[in-house]
Amino acid sequence: SNAPIKTDVLTELGTNDFSYLIPITGYYCVAAINPPFEGEHNNFEMIVNFHNAYGSLPASQIPLLSLYGLLGVVYAVCLFIYLFPVFKHRSELLLLQKYLAGFFVFLTIEDILTWSLYEIQNNNKKYPLPGGIQFYIVFVSILNAFKISFSLFLLLVISLGYGIVYTKLPRKVMNVCKIICGLHFLFSAAAAWFSYHASQSQPIGSTTSTGRASDGFDTDSIIGILISIPMMILFM
C-alpha cells in the first residue's frame, strides 16, 4: 500500500503522545533503532499498542453497547407502564407481586449500569485497568449475579406454589432454595467478573509476545471452565 511513513525521536519515558492512524486494512510494521550513547549501545524496551478505532472492546462486544442501551430504554418505558397499575392497586397486591415489581426496578437499573460499564471500558485507553474501573467491574458483576440468582430463586419458589397455592413454604424447602441460589450467586459473580474483565482487549505487555498471549488464552479458558462446571451442576 501507499501508506505514509511516520518517524519520530523519543527522548522521554512514557507514551510521548505518538500515534499513527491506520485508515486502510493491511500489514503495518514498526521499526525502532537505538543510537549509540557515549560510545555504547543503549538498550531499551518499547511497547507498541495497536488500538482499535472503535474503542477498547473486542469487535464481538461492540454490538452490546447498542443492545444494552436499547434494552435500558425499553425496560424504563415498560417499568413506568407497569408501575402505574401497581401503584393504583397497591393495597390489593400479593407479597409475591410486590417482589416482582421491586425486581423489575432492579432489572432496569442493572441494565443501565451494565451499559455504562461497556461504555467506560470501550473508552478506556489505560492499561492495566484503573482501580475505579476494576471496582466498577466487581460491582456490576455482583449485580448481574444477583439478577440471575434471584431470577432462579423466584422460579423455584413460584414453581413450588409460593404466593399462589401456599402463603408460605416449609422452612426446610425454603432453606434448600436459598442455599442453591446462594451458591449459584457466588459462581455467577465469578463468571460475570471473568467475562467483563476479559472483555478489555488491551495487552498486558508487548503485543509481539505470542507466547504470553497463548498462555493467557489457555489460562483464561481453564478458569472459565472451572467456573462453569459448578453452575452446570446447580442447574441439573
TrEMBL record:
List keywords of the entry alphabetically.
Membrane, Signal, Transmembrane, Transmembrane helix
Q: Which Pfam families match?
A: GOST_TM
Q: What are the BP-aspect GO terms?
A: retrograde transport, endosome to Golgi
Q: Which domain of life is it from?
A: Eukaryota
Is Membrane a UniProt keyword of this protein?
yes
Please name the source species.
Pichia kudriavzevii
The GO cellular component terms are:
cytosol; Golgi apparatus; membrane
Which parts of the sequence belong to the GOST seven transmembrane domain?
A: 63-198
Q: Kindly list the places in or outside the cell where this protein is found, as annotated in its UniProt entry.
A: Membrane
Membrane-protein topology: Multi-pass membrane protein
Q: What is this protein called?
A: GOST seven transmembrane domain-containing protein
* Taxonomic placement: Eukaryota, Fungi, Dikarya, Ascomycota, Saccharomycotina
User: Which residue ranges does UniProt annotate as crossing the membrane?
Assistant: 65-87, 99-118, 133-164, 176-196, 216-235
